[in-house]
Amino acid sequence: xxxxxxxxxxxxxxxxxxxxxxxxxxxxxxxxxxxxxxxxxxxxxxxxxxxxxxxxxxxxxxxxxxxxxxxxxxxxxxxxxxxxxxxxxxxxxxxxxxxxxxxxxxxxxxxxxxxxxxxxxxxxxxxxxxxxxxxxxxxxxxxxxxxxxxxxxxxxxxxxxxxxxxxxxxxxxxxxxxxxxxxxxxxxxxxxxxxxxxxxxxxxxxxxxxxxxxxxxxxxxxxxxxxxxxxxxxxxxxxxxxxxxxxxxxxxxxxxxxxxxxxxxxxxxxxxxxxxxxxxxxxxxxxxxxxxxxxxxxxxxxxxxxxxxxxxxxxxxxxxxxxxxxxxxxxxxxxxxxxxxxxxxxxxxxxxxxxxxxxxxxxxxxxxxxxxxxxxxxxxxxxxxxxxxxxxxxxxxxxxxxxxxxxxxxxxxxxxxxxxxxxxxxxxxxxxxxxxxxxxxxxxxxxxxxxxxxxx
Length: 456
Prior knowledge:
Layout: H1 8-16, E1 22-28, E2 34-40, H2 41-48, E3 52-55, E4 82-87, E5 93-94, E6 101-110, H3 121-134, E7 138-150, H4 154-159, H5 177-181, H6 184-196, E8 201-206, E9 212-217, E10 220-221, H7 222-242, E11 246-248, E12 264-269, H8 288-299, H9 301-304, E13 327-328, E14 330-332, E15 339-342, E16 350-353, H10 362-378, E17 398-399, H11 404-412, H12 415-421, H13 423-442, H14 446-452
């Protein structure tokens, strides 16, 4: 057990001796954020460890917490009732960057039936994991998470209207040791804080732009990976705020800068815990199962892009020559393709999906990957030959959606995702996409005003 993971009995002891006085009780919202309550620790031990409650609008709002019309699950006409938050005590951990604080993640249950709410992100992922379990398979995954760190604080950046923002470094710091040494005040605190929370952090590095960082968490089971990802994003923002800095997981914060991604590494284990993707006698070490799984990822890439790129801004990242893919093709250790084979001919063989941005909800993204891979297995799909050379220049393979509307429409036509997630769940997230588009189309942007104010 990593330092910082807590048993319920240890929490009781830590509360009794004064080491912990607050417990964060959190669910995951549609945007992948931690939402919930702060409990006086003794109150959590007395009763809230069993359950607490929240407004059901938490799974029907946008970034601004606007109660959005058009959802079947909840609405003004339905009165916005309660959900039950059921703490998953296996996720109980210290949050060392917050004074005397522990944190636990919750499953979201229907207030009346106490069944999991089907459109809750954690429930969507767990449903795909249950499908795998029936095949005696377990998903192993990791998400590489990138973000930009800025000189100013969140409050200062907001006050200046997010204009003339200065990244913490003045030049591309990809793998730079000297430049990242200047940023250690924040990054060291992030690494140590995550480790103290029981998040198996491996390391951080400068990424391919000025002020861009990458944090890597150890390969783990799919649900743990999503939990680690959500907690990591929250911790990074809180720690940066404590240090007087702002950071962003926007997929593309400026049109002249590269975007921030969240690549998803994935493989399946068999009942004996061995990599079911590995066959030492097969080409590239890829088992028949792996080839079918990867073929599913490619076939359903367009239909599932929404769950990897859920906002209008997400699609600004897909640009030629930026290491963000534009084609649903696979290649061997080639960072221009949508899917990259890693660990070729070794027991660590796996596939990396390079489509997702840092703005993705990890539960939805991982669930979408697993649903597509499972479809490939169940349909016994055949994998074509790997692409060689520059994927940006190829005519092979299908183009990824170029904007949110295209991704939304591709998902709306997907029978596979309707079957895998449930038709009502897909309708719920289509409404989320529609609202994002409606709000974007309603707002006059700085670009429009600057371009046309005088010259129109």
